[in-house]
Amino acid sequence: MLQSPRTGREGDVLAVVSQSGPTVSFFDAASDRHLGDVHVPAEPHELCFDATQRLLWCTLTYHSGYYHANGGRRTELAVIDPDTRRVVELVDLAPEHGPHGLALDAERGRLYVSVESGDDRPGGVVVVDTAGRRPLGRIDTDAPGPHWFSIDPAGRTGYATNKEAPFVSVVDLERGALTAKVEVPGSEGLAVSADGAYVYVAAPYGNFSGGGGERPANGLRVIDARTASVVDTLPTGNVVLPVHLTSTGRLLAGELRMAADPASQLGRHAPGRLTVFDAGSRKRVGEVEVGLFPLTITSSPDGRLAYVSCVISSTVEIVDVETLEHLGRLDIAKLGEPGAHGLAYIPRPA
């Protein structure tokens, strides 16, 4: 019999961004009890926990709104102490702006932050020293809006997905240079395999403009890191935004679903879907219904629990990855649209 997925999580904490809060909320991972909130400047998006420094990094992306419909792009990262639940510093990346995706190389003390293009530069990735909490430089990605970013386990190669640009940018982190462009028809979330051999990319991107024309098939493109080429596609029924790979090799995809609505050209939001694949065999394992517009996925360090933030319903759905049982739902406070966004699982102090 499987042990309860809650066993042994006392003292662990889940951190959740409310984009319109604007807050980072903290929940007990064993009981789901709300522990408190940290108020941050508008408009927080993603989270990344650095266990070495025991600090939580949060991107502050726009003054209001969201991608392609915002009230101006911000330039800061909020640095949060998750134990005392307070902001300890705001790190300004100016003139870089629109920080979004976060990837941590704990061994080298480097945090990588995707940023949007400006009048004088393409989109790119800013390199931040996690000990000194200062930017060290940037790497161009040759695309206007690199949104999600991930690195291989060795910390040598990074991958930026680009919503409108028809490629994934591959960068050499040691040389600080763009080395390849992998043809993909616009892309969203991504995850790198534990051995660094494959990259799983959600494509095509979520285009909500209502434009016509034939769209490429929805799914996860599998990129061979050695050849920088797409070698397989894992099909999904709907457009995928977040992608996450657990420590046990489960590949999690958050599908956005829409229902017909005579009053709206785009339709209305229907419950989303968490689709689970086995990364080794690339076979579909199953699916679980979640909230409206799944946007971020994370998991517990043992890979047993999945957390799916759903930005329109402003909920976090908790799923047992082994049994595909829906275990609970966290309601995240918001002041408007959108709501729940970035996630980070924070193990208790040693």
UniProtKB/TrEMBL annotation:
SUPFAM superfamilies: Nitrous oxide reductase, N-terminal domain. It comes from the Bacteria. InterPro entries: Host-pathogen_enzymatic-act, N2O_reductase_N, WD40/YVTN_repeat-like_dom_sf. This is YncE family protein. It comes from Streptomyces katrae.
